[in-house]
Design a protein that fits this description.
By secondary structure, this protein is α+β, with helices and mostly antiparallel strands. It has eight helices and 19 strands. About 50% of the residues are buried.
Length: about 375
């Protein structure tokens, strides 16, 4: 996880007192004091895979674009197709600089004909806003950029029982949105944006609510879920997303790595003139990138941490994320290696001075069902 400097003054989400009362171990993360674990990362991880878990992700940022030129501006900012995203749809993509490096990975919510919402990473809120406003100023387009982060709470309810738990707070007959869709709804009388998305590999929702109503929503979900709904912290969130090989900004993604190297080409819609597109197209002319992100399964149970050296016959690579994966009962990692190494290749990771064998594998590491 990408923790902030513990000496800095940490911000608190609306649910901070609830976490402390529940006995959570709090840690600095992206400038916030956040719950890393309540009782056991392993138990919280397994609860999400088998029942359901609720995460406080109110530290994430929300930025709204609105105005006559909203779609035109978004097409420049976002690697994925904006015009082809219908109302009520959610789409994942990236912001890139001219070199192709990643400013942030974000989700886009198409909320209106001349309006949309970006959900951005907590550590990047200020940088994203500065970059977006710079692009807007240079473009001269008629669009307003509004930071709604402080006014918004965000909860993630994930797991096989997540939809049923949330339905207990919804009006009778409410039809759940399809995967990668959202709906404006009420839960326990609280107006929310209910998004059928997540970061765990399980079905469920991400629920945007007014910041001042987030505590009431949290309490309502806990009552509705009972023993089936576990409180889950950043520790379980990290093991769950690593099993799915989902990238984390500051680990797999940054301004020194681009979406093609990270294996995210499917979220890049070429031919629209987004910022960084010419640089990404150069990979085609060069026969592909020189390095790529791969999944690794390690021999034994030692964990490869970010920054550890991956030893290959063609030069060193580097681990970006690593964990012991409860759902696959083994040590796994993500990392960048020379692009020639495909699934099945045998490599080594240096862990505390020892060379540990590992194998390149196809991802995700974990598949539901």
């Amino acid at each position: 996880m990408n923790a902030a400097d513990s000496s800095a003054v940490l911000r608190r989400t609306p649910l901070w007192s609830r976490h402390v009362a529940a006995g959570a171990r709090m840690v600095p993360f992206a400038g916030f004091d956040m719950p890393v674990v309540y009782a056991s990362i392993l138990d919280e991880h397994r609860a999400v895979r088998t029942r359901a878990g609720v995460f406080d992700v109110s530290h994430m940022g929300e930025v709204r674009l609105r105005g006559p030129a909203t779609l035109e501006l978004a097409q420049r900012l976002f690697t994925n197709d904006v015009a082809g995203t219908g109302l009520g749809r959610v789409r994942y993509g990236l912001f890139c600089v001219e070199s192709g490096g990643v400013v942030d990975d974000v989700t886009l919510y198409r909320t209106g004909e001349r309006e949309l919402l970006f959900c951005v990473n907590a550590s990047n809120i200020a940088a994203d806003l500065a970059w977006m406003r710079e692009v807007l100023a240079l473009s001269g387009l008629d669009c307003e950029i509004v930071d709604e982060s402080d006014a918004t709470g965000l909860l993630a309810v994930q797991g096989p029982e997540a939809l049923a738990i949330v339905a207990r707070l919804a009006p009778a007959g409410m039809k759940p949105p399809k995967r990668w869709h959202f709906a404006h709804a009420e839960l326990a009388g609280i107006p929310v944006l209910l998004s059928r998305t997540g970061y765990t590999g399980e079905d469920g929702y991400e629920i945007f609510a007014p910041a001042e109503r987030t505590v009431a929503l949290w309490d309502g979900l806990r009552e509705a879920g009972g023993d089936a709904l576990a409180l889950a912290g950043l520790g379980a969130r990290d093991t769950l997303r690593t099993e799915m090989a989902y990238p984390l900004y500051g680990h797999e993604l940054d301004r020194e790595h681009d979406p093609v190297e990270a294996g995210l080409e499917r979220f890049v819609a070429f031919g629209r003139g987004f910022i960084g597109e010419p640089a990404l197209r150069r990979h085609e002319a060069q026969g592909g990138p020189s390095r790529k992100l791969v999944g690794l399964v390690l021999e034994g149970r030692q964990v490869a941490r970010p920054g550890f050296r991956i030893q290959t016959p063609d030069g060193d690579g580097v681990v970006t994320s690593g964990t012991f994966a409860p759902s696959v009962d083994g040590a796994i990692a993500l990392g960048y290696v020379p692009a020639k190494f495909a699934a099945g290749a045998n490599l080594h990771v240096e862990i505390r001075g020892k060379s540990v064998p590992c194998k390149v594998v196809s991802t995700p590491f974990y598949k539901r069902g």
